Amino acid sequence: MSLLPHQLELLSPARNAEIGIEAVNHGADAVYIGGPGFGARATAGNETRDLERLVQHAHRFGSRIFITLNTILRDDELEGARKMAWDMYHIGADALIIQDMGLLELDLPPIQLHASTQNDIRTPEKAKFLQDAGLSQIVLARELDLKQIKAVHNVLDPHTTIEYFIHGALCVAYSGQCYITHAHTGRSANRGDCNQACRLPYEVMDDKGRIIAHEKHVLSMKDNNQTDNMRALVDAGVRSFKIEGRYKDMGYVKNITAHYRKILDEIIEEREFSDMPLARSSSGTTTFTFTPDPDQNFNREFTDYFVNGRKDDIGAFDTPKTPGRAVGWVTQVGDKWFEFESHDKAAVFNNGDGLCYYDLQKELVGVHINRAESVHAKKGIWRVFPKDPIAGFKDLRKGLEVNRNRDMNWVRMLDKKSSDRRIGLWAEFRETADGFALTLTDEDGWVGQATIAQKHQAATDASKAEATLREQLGRFGASIFAVHDISLSITQPWFVPASALNQLRRDALQALEAARASGLVRLPRAKPVEPPVPFPEDTLSYLANVYNQKAHDFYVKHGVKVIDAAYESKEELGEVSLMITKHCVRYSMSLCPKQAKGVIGVKGTIKAEPLQLINGKEKLTLRFDCKPCEMHVVGKMKPSVLNQHAKEMQEFPMQFYRTRPAPQAKA
């Protein structure tokens, strides 16, 4: 069991332990973070001692830590991955997020396993198979709509948690189904080393050689934002709400975690008296010193993607950069400065702010402010001196709209303490035969108690003595607790020295924290169904990402007859689908036959013929599979990648699953 059916989990990312701690402080019920290796973000690993520190902090609130072990693994890496899994178990980590099914054939610790986004879970059949194979939490493909999410929910057991991405960058490909990086560079997105070819500008050419789009980022998606769909996602069966961003900075994690914490708390409060009351999956309440605002962080503008069906505005085709918010328009351009009039006359601009604007080719041009001066406060006119020479700013002119994509006031605010997370408790102070006792009971029912030997001394001022007792006993500011009420079970007001009351409170708090720690139940590992259930298919292509013999053995055990090697095994030498996407360039450019259906004068004239993507010397073919409404980006592996691999194999032999003889390096 992972979450109970009525519990909601806010799952935040962390690049390192410090960011993870702040994610917890800002309301995360769980945090996912890279371990020492084998995570699908190659440069986002963390040392074991730092992860242990994060685990200990999270567990104080009942929040959980999930470790990403979600790359595909070579045979010679399996033992290292197994050892890492045990190390993570020993420091108290709560779950491993995995992609490689070979791990299920190893001697893993009794730690809960979650299915990575890299598992490409789009169907109820695959989700149920992974559940039956022993995975407790299933993250669905970002491309699913509400009806499809509900269909998955309907086939899963109540103890299996559906996880869904609600915010952050979007991979245009189905996760785990992108091989462009490997084909062109030898690096692998499935092994945490994506080169983001989807963010590059391309020329789009039709089958007659006509250019229908020039230098457009046609594979670059806007950023995911499910703010308006959270209630519908809850109703569809989602219980773990995942924020993307293991490469993101502290400010992003603080802000976006706080944003969704407030939304989930609102939903929980709204449904308190419904037929199915909801609860957060960890303890405490969180307050913030700022108003969360997703627009303040880097974003490529927002989309809710396919949750409410196919839309034509999901792409960030003009730029993969962050355009920010429109703040005004240029009024004058000088030799070292330019002036602009702000839409909001009360807005303040700062040294270090970032402005930007679109040039005539619709490319985003960034302006780093070296100095900002208010010229006319009432009119909201500002003069800014950019860090770079004015002459270098293309198409900067009077009347041009400018945006702000970096606000230094906001950045400085989030550099400071910006949240307070507290667990509520009730305190009872009572007298004993030889002194006094304090019992603390928290909102989860855990109890901490302490006693102190102290002579009973009548107070000279009864009302003042009682007020002093409440004041001294209620000082929980340095702890993670907030007192709801203090009851005094005494026969008369006593004078008790402040030092004695402080010691009593500290001892009771220590006992309460110890009780909470000892009572934390580790998430149980789900048992696979026996005998092993059959995989939904009996033939697997390179798209299954089988890169080691143990993964092969796993699928054989589950009834698969033919198993091709992963693309990284270098066996697919001809043209193949290097990326499979729900995004369709034809649809986004109004060239889809379904769009033309029924349109007078257009019907029958548009066909889903292939298109070419061109970036310098790189050429890719777009093929359109209209029945499932999918696009395939087709290409082949570069000879240089194959040659480099053959040389590396001679120098540093590696072991991985293959079905054909290894290629030899060319002389």
Keywords:
667 residues; alpha/beta; TIM Barrel; Thrombin, subunit H; seven-stranded antiparallel β-sheet; 31 strands
Question: Could you give the topology of this structure?
Answer:
Blueprint: E1 7-14, H1 17-25, E2 30-34, H2 48-60, E3 64-69, H3 78-90, E4 95-98, E5 112-115, H4 124-132, E6 137-139, H5 146-155, E7 161-168, E8 173-178, H6 180-185, E9 202-205, E10 211-216, E11 223-225, H7 230-236, E12 240-243, H8 250-270, E13 279-280, E14 285-288, E15 302-303, E16 325-333, E17 338-342, E18 354-358, E19 364-376, E20 381-386, E21 401-406, H9 408-415, E22 419-431, E23 435-442, E24 447-453, H10 462-473, E25 481-489, H11 498-519, E26 539-540, H12 549-557, E27 562-563, E28 576-581, H13 585-588, H14 593-596, E29 611-615, E30 618-625, E31 630-635, H15 639-651
Parallel strand pairs: 1-2, 1-12, 1-13, 2-3, 3-4, 4-5, 5-6, 6-7, 7-12, 11-15, 22-25, 26-27
Antiparallel strand pairs: 7-11, 8-28, 9-10, 9-29, 14-22, 16-17, 16-21, 17-20, 18-19, 18-21, 19-20, 22-23, 23-24, 28-31, 29-30, 30-31
Helix pairs in contact: 1-2, 1-8, 4-5, 5-7, 10-11
Description:
- The chain is of the alpha/beta class.
- Among the domains are: 7-170 and 222-288 and 290-296, TIM Barrel, CATH 3.20.20.70; 321-415, Thrombin, subunit H (Beta Barrel), CATH 2.40.10; 422-519, no CATH class.
- The chain contains 15 helices and 31 strands.
- The strands form five sheets. It has an eight-stranded parallel barrel, surrounded by five helices. It has a seven-stranded antiparallel β-sheet with strand order 8-28-31-30-29-9-10.
- α10 runs parallel beside α11.
- The longest helix has 22 residues, at 498-519.
- The radius of gyration is 29 Å and the shape is globular.
- The protein starts with 6 loop residues before the first strand and ends in a 16-residue tail after the last helix.
- The model has no long low-confidence stretch (mean pLDDT 95).
